[in-house]
Automatic annotation (TrEMBL):
Its main location: membrane. The chain crosses the membrane at residues 82-102, 140-161, 293-319, 325-344, 356-376, 388-409, 430-447. GO terms for molecular function: transferase activity. Pfam families: Cas1_AcylT. It is a multi-pass membrane protein. GO terms for biological process: carbohydrate metabolic process. The keyword Transmembrane applies. It is found in: Membrane. This is Cas1p 10 TM acyl transferase domain-containing protein. GO terms for cellular component: Golgi apparatus; membrane. Keywords: Glycoprotein, Membrane, Transferase, Transmembrane, Transmembrane helix. The keyword Glycoprotein applies. It comes from Paragonimus westermani. Belongs to the PC-esterase family. CASD1 subfamily.
Amino acid sequence: MWARVCVSSYLFLSGFGHFVYFWRQSIENPRNSVFRSSNSNRNGFSFVQSWWSILKRYLDVMFRMNFFVAALCFVMDVDYLFYYFMPLISFWFTVIVILMTVGSCKSASTVSIVPTELPMTAPDEMPSQPSPTIGKMQFFNPYIMMMFKFALLIVLIEIVYRVHPLFHSIFYGWFIRKFFKLDKPEPNVFKAAESTDVLAERFWFYRWSLDRYATVWGMLFAFCCDWLRHVNLMDDSTCSDLVLFNRESSLIQAEKCHQLSAKSVLKSLSGVSCLSTVCRNFSKIFGKISEPYIIRMFPTCATIFGLGGLILTIVFTMILRNRELGMELHAYFCFFPIISYILVRNSFGFLRTRHSIFFAWFGDISLELFIGQYHIWLANNTHGVLALIPNCRMLNLILTTLIFVCVCHEIHQLTSRLHTYIVPKTFQALMCRSFALCFLLLFLTFIP
């Protein structure tokens, strides 16, 4: 069970990191940048450049995740699905890119953009009083759009999980079915009595469904953290303890908002009036408790909740006897132990600002370690254990582990070096290398 939590943690952090990157990107809307501007050439170039940055990010990540696996598929003569984790994270990264680019004009880059002047609709209207509606609409529109996309994604994932013909049509109904097949008889761990297509689909459905929501939970967590920062309800920008309900800075921003004149620029944070209402209600409910005390106690309470969540997870895994039920619940509640650990790790400043250099180095080569174990730690396509020194288990473990880590580190370095030559840096280079790759594939196809 804890091995599943580690895999889910990787997908959770992957969703978190990729969401933060794309959420902070500014992608030009083609209708606004090309057709509604007098300088269409310059804005059209800006539109192409913004989308090229997204495409380059996609190529960089896909190369990083799949280069080692693609090489092993040719060298070891195994199927791509044999290393199931690479197709899994590649699929979810593609889902993240599609989710964040559809309706991409609504992102964090539009949160702080507000009109510099209020339009006058009547001669007797006084523009000296800024309307909070503009700020709230500009602030909440990207977040409402993102919440709608999250809800739609969760519904689609559940539909694909429940409707098996739809799952089959997505992964095995067109040309990508070549990536989700297990045609090689030797690496497959299934019985040869059944059809390989049926077994491959069953295997992929099982792996896909185990962590089908882990990436979404990571994206939702990043989304909530970003929203809390923007409304000044959370402050993690300093080395001090985590601060929640930062009411003082919020009220200062609210005061500045009401003092703006007609000729001044609207620099206040959006949604301040709504935030002030929340703060007033907070003061009414906890009027007898001083606010500094609540702020000071929040890291301790968050750490206690995190430890409690980890303890509950350990107890649950110990008393659970039905493995199938545990895997089904894991798909929906895998975020619980992950967020519990995050609370313990990040609530206090002295823990959040420190890390292990040794484990950070291991994290850099985590993909290579996961794939390399199939052929270095293990043997015979995971059916056996590599034994370089017979009858000496401890020495054999030390030697194979040393070789295992060193090989994975060198492969990571090689991937980084080849990345600069294989992945293009410009759109023109991408087109040239795409044509060259097509000709190479055609040439290899006709070789007898």
